[in-house]
Known about the structure:
This protein has 390 residues and is of the alpha/beta class.
Amino acid sequence: MNDLDFLRTPEGRALLDEVRDTDPAQELAVATRLRRTHPAPLVSAALGQARLRQRAVAKFGAADAGRMFFTPNGVEQSTRASVAAYRAERLHGLGVRSVADLCCGIGGDAIALARAGIRVLAVDRDPLTCEAARANADALGLADLIEVREADVTEVGTAPYDAVFVDPARRGGRGRIFDPEAYSPPLSWAVAAARTAARAAALKVAPGIPHEAVPADAEAEWISDGGDVKEAVLWFGAGAAPGAVRATLLPGPRTLPGTGLPDPEARTPGRYLYEPDGAVVRAHLVAEVAAQVGGGLLDATIAYVTADELRPTPYATAYEITDRMPFNVKKLKALLCERGVGTLTVKKRGSAVEPEELRKKVRPQGPNAATVFLTRVAGAPTMLIGHPAR
């Protein structure tokens, strides 16, 4: 009996409940106690699953994570629930009622699709991963909408389904894979599968995908959640605008479409600095943000926008700049001491200095807060000091 088989039995579920909130520092003591009444491998399995569930809360929320079953890779590689729900709603809005979810992992996207009322064929070639996906569909009451199939995705027929969703593996034995053709399966295969979809298709890819690698007949969307860039999606078929790019920010959603604006010109720093959301930067839509706020770039090679007026936009965070100086640690330290700054946020673009290294050198102390931007202005290393605009 493997770990998941045991953990789904009444005894296993009882053991999971008992170790649910175990503090990592207390694991050894808890394990020692439980091994007096349970086999050691089963205690280890329960504690391991409890750790995975605790890690999964950030992606799935406490309610779902506390009922689901995970593998280490499954927690690491699964889609955040908010992002999966957004994508599922977009597919549902396109009239999609059935999806072939290829490379389904532990079922995060399949769960979101099923909750949107979409019937799902979830396919993965790893037996343990498939077992976790089945367990999750059952635990969340979605087994009637999710069929899990252990198979090579390249051998699965998708013709009976309205849409295809592919999430190729982007990690290997040496870590992240950056070449789309080194994905498993390769991006070229996923694109070919998408083009055969009856109605629509979505391919999840790394947010760092080169724009030149995006097929001409795909729409590319970069998605962030809470300011963190999570993924890029290539859309095909219904609802997709070939060649278009967009940045979508969650929660919301708020979507900024590309309008083909040329790169804004660099200008002297104004009173305000705008830090575009990472999805906007990845989608190469900084020009659209600059147009919204009536600004230009601090430097032709840096994705910071500067302007003289405060014009709030959901696609960038605005800061009021109070000081500008060439990069000089001693002068920065003196300024922060004079202002009584003890809480220092360090942001950087175009600087080799690490934020933590700078904080150690300036040793901020005092009741006030400030933000310092390490960047370049007209090619020169520069420090801009300010605070979030009000």
